[in-house]
Amino acid sequence: MQTVRHSEQTLKTALISKTPVLVSQYENFNAGEQRLMNEAFQPNSDLFGPITLHSESDWITSHPETPQDFEQFYNDPKRKIPSPDKCTIYIQAIGSLGNTRIISEEYIKWLKGYCEAFFYGLRVKLLEPIPVSATRCSFRVNDNTQNLQIHAGDILKFLKRKKPGNAFCVVGITMIDLYPRDSWNFVFGQASLTDGVGIFSFARYGSDFYSSHYEGKVRKLERPSSSEYSVFDNYYIPEITSIFLLRSCKTLTHEIGHIFGLRHCQWLSCLMQGSNHLEEADRRPPNLCPICLRKLQSAIGFNIVERYKALLRWIDGESADLPGIMPKHSHEGEVNLPERVEAFKEWKEWIIKCLAVLQK
To answer: Which cofactor does it need (predicted)?
Structure first.
């Protein structure tokens, strides 16, 4: 295992900058906010640790990138900033998200509530779910995993055409695997900063995706032509567990972060780290490091304490717009969805520690 460590001065400059106007902005944070973000360059911080690399296939090793500090983010002419008339994040479900209508509806409400807390201060709205056929996207059967995949670029073009006038961005979510081009095996998600659209798949977050017993495989003899969308009518959908929900929330907020102009983080252990595979994605925390937190705060303008409190309310199921904890009964049978706090327990404890620092 390799640890990526930066000097205290390097991290301090990445967070605060040496440009007087940005230093002045940083000094406008109250004492508690500065105390929390200064943890970025405290060597023994128990809130923000260094990035660890476990194999040559990890993102930083295989995809060299130039780190983006706060000053570079702030001065990027291409980054998107919400405005009073474009301050809504829209979520577009593509295909079914659960094995019943009730599960699909409850799951997407969970994601909506999480985005409202994470991007505190912006509105989040759900668009009417659509079948794959509505996008007219290309699709294929993956030669390695034998599962159905839809073309991410085609979906992005569809979302761009459908984007509402008051949208900051539109993000598509699906339980169908994605591929960005014929030469690639798969991609977890893809976003366009310029167009303010993104598409993210949770297909590989099921516990059985990489097993020999995966039920989503398509037999070679049954491979469809590129115009027969009926093959998606009864495609396999993994069970929504607590860890599945955690993985979904992390992917969704990571990719929306890119639409705000946040590049892959190479400073500290952070949600905005890149990931090449599921194991690496699981190591990535759900929280932003102080450098990325400052980037997002500067774009949205939220109160840091209130944002963390909103995330706690979501974990505890107290948000007004969130579905209650199951089980439920309906004409579609009994529905059991997991307790959110199961997978988010460690993060809940971490947020409480952050609030203690902020409010000390």
So the answer is: Zn(2+)
C-alpha angle 126-127-131 in degrees, rounded to nearest 5: 125
The more confidently predicted of residues 336 and 107 is: 107
CA-angle at 108, arms to 134 and 218, nearest 5° = 55
Taking alpha carbons only, the member of 262, 258, 293, 267 closest to residue 60 is 267
Structure tokens at 45: 């911080």
150 φ/ψ angles, rounded to the nearest 5 degrees: -115, 155
pLDDT at 7: 93
Q: How far apart are CA 58 and CA 275, in angstroms?
A: 7
Contacts of 160 (CB under 8 A, 6+ apart): 170, 192, 195, 197
Active site residues: 255
CA distances from residue 353 to 1, 348, 359 in whole angstroms, order as listed: 28, 9, 10
Say whether 123 sits in a helix, a strand or coil.
strand
Angle, helices 20-27 vs 8-16, to 10°: value is: 90
The sign of the dihedral angle between the CA atoms of 23, 350, 358, 43 is: negative
In one-letter notation, the amino acid at residue 211 is S
pLDDT for residue 70 is more than 90: yes
Q: Per the confidence metrics, is the pTM higher than 0.85?
A: yes
